[in-house]
Design a protein that fits this description.
two-stranded antiparallel sheet, alpha+beta, 291 residues, 9 strands
Length: 291
């Protein structure tokens, strides 16, 4: 294993191995801090100061927690067909036999957890159904195999899920207080979408942003749904419906105050005379470049 803080990282063999197995994630290095790991991951995609990953965009990388620090995983994505995008989370059906010392029976719980192995940050495996018999009944749960080789126990996955749910509920309560203090929704173009999400969140406890986006799309707010899905991915899948509503309200306010763009596009002329039109990252509008 290569550790960024005490070894010179030889990127050439890592890049070559990733190129040989297109779309397969490879552990590149382990860095001592999240900041150094995240910085290294950004440089891989840009091929910035790491020519082994040229041309820019041929590889992608992400940083994740590792037992020894922050791991950077890379994969080669150039060519066709397009590789599957990295999931923001994984959903599994797992056994829950309770937490007491005595036998309490079994129940199947569906959990949504991080897409990365908690030990090394590598990608978690795809769920495969497993049918078993216990106490006179048949049950179906999921099994998965992590490419990194780390084996996960259902008890650990349940603990991870419960911790994430608790953190989300705390954040949701905080956001609910913020929403009440703000008074009636005034979210510009997203006002109706925000009202729908707040009403749904009030009726359904711990409503996730993923379900919220589907709900918005079904109710005809497709653009708002896409913005929520976009933000959900940026937050690694950790977002409640109420947080999605606040995000849309903040986005509407940002759009109203933005002076950097022209209807969602930033247009400028390069030194060589070429005209460039880029999407404004603050407004996130779905627009096309000016002709």
């Amino acid at each position: 294993m290569k550790r960024g803080h005490n070894l010179y990282i030889k990127h050439a063999p890592i890049a070559a191995a990733a190129r040989a197995e297109r779309g397969v994630w490879r552990l590149a290095a382990v860095y001592p801090s999240p900041q150094s790991g995240q910085s290294a991951a950004r440089r891989v995609g840009r091929a910035e100061r790491v020519p082994s990953y040229e041309p820019a965009g041929a590889y992608e990388a992400y940083a994740a927690m590792h037992d020894d620090g922050t791991a950077v995983w890379v994969r080669y994505i150039a060519g066709a067909p397009a590789v599957e995008p990295r999931p923001s989370s994984m959903t599994y059906r797992v056994c829950d036999r309770g937490t007491s010392s005595g036998y309490q029976g079994v129940r199947v719980v569906t959990v949504t957890v991080a897409a990365e192995c908690p030990r090394c940050g590598g990608p978690r495996g795809e769920a495969k159904p497993h049918r078993f018999h216990e106490d006179g009944d048949w049950y179906v749960v999921d099994r998965w195999s992590n490419a990194c080789g780390h084996v996960e126990q259902y008890t650990d996955v349940l603990a991870e899920w419960r911790k994430a749910v608790a953190e989300l509920e705390i954040a949701d309560r905080r956001d609910a207080i913020r929403a009440m203090r703000a008074g009636p929704a005034d979210a510009g173009e997203y006002t109706e979408a925000v009202l729908l999400l707040n009403a749904a969140a009030a009726q359904i406890k711990s409503l996730h942003a993923r379900q919220a986006a589907l709900f918005l799309d079904m109710r005809g707010h497709s653009e708002a749904a896409r913005r929520v899905q976009e933000e959900l991915k940026a937050r690694d899948g950790r977002m409640s419906a109420r947080q999605a509503a606040l995000f849309l309200a903040d986005l509407a306010a940002t759009r109203a105050a933005c002076t950097r763009c022209d209807n969602g596009r930033i247009n400028y002329q390069c030194r060589d005379g070429e005209f460039i039109s880029l999407r404004c990252k603050a407004c996130r509008k779905e627009t096309v470049p000016n002709a």
